[in-house]
Amino acid sequence: MTGYMKLYTLLREKITRRIYHEGDKLPSKRQLADESGYSVITVEHAYELLTEEGYVEPRERSGYYVIYKEGDSYPVAEREVPFRQTSERVDVERREAGERDLFPFSAFARTMRNVLSTSGEKILDPSPNKGCLALREALAAYLARSRHMEVSPEAILIGSGAEYLYGLNVQVLGRNRMYALENPSYEKIRKVYEAWQVPLEFLTMGKEGIETRELEKSHASVLHVTPFNSYPSGITASASKRAEYIRWARERQGFIIEDDFDSEFTLLSKPEDTLFSLSPEGPVIYMNSFSKTIAPSIRVGYLVIPAPLLPRYEEKVGFYSCTVPVFDQLVLAEFIRSGQFERHINRVRRRRRKMEALRKH
To answer: Any idea which architecture 3-66 has in CATH?
Structure first.
């Protein structure tokens, strides 16, 4: 871990553990550099990350102040966020189509050939029920590097896309529970839950995530959220709101399904901290897929299951055969291990940052 990431992590923990409270002023950049032994530039970079994620805010000629909220300091009312217009959805689709030229197709094709050459007839073997160990190991290493999630390959379950994984979660958590969704949210999430005939609540979004009053009056015990760039509102949950979601689930002994859709292409200096990384032994089931990061035709998704829930998943859905072909899994594993996957993500992020800078000017 680089110096600024170590410092960022240390400061974030001091804020979330309330060593620094909301409204407290952090040490100046030079003071913290002297105390920590890091350079002023390293301190500045760490403060920039904390600012991007909503833990602190800079005040002109004054310094950095903690804005992370804890406990009862949440506002009673928040601004309601309207649905995005259809034209904005079209703009997103056009942008993504325009980014297809960034995908290293030749490298992906070469990976396919390498897997055929090295694996041979092994690609005809049945997959382990959770998915091939090679892919689960590659994903565990990738999540540790990119999302600060320290997970075992045994905690990862591979399936054919997000919609299939939604169904597995319902089978494990139960259909007799109330499930809460963001309002607005991606329509297909609602349709899948309705197909499983689970009772649903729709919780209104504010500018930082689901409104506090909506969470408080909810009767749900399962909260399905897309904390980063929620579709179609485009809202990213603030650090305070992510902590509130976790507290909500713990207080009612419920669960959170963290749908980390499209998070890799953030415009921030680093991807947001996932709910799972903030509560690795807690009530969060993390899920992601490759339909956005590679292509819609790649019908591969995965769950990261917290240790306390692993026995329940084994009992309820452990008998299912993996729904992703072995060849596809081995190709993805090699594509991730080789670094090509992360280089592709970084190329797209650089272009999006550049386009956003041009748009602002």
So the answer is: Orthogonal Bundle (1.10)
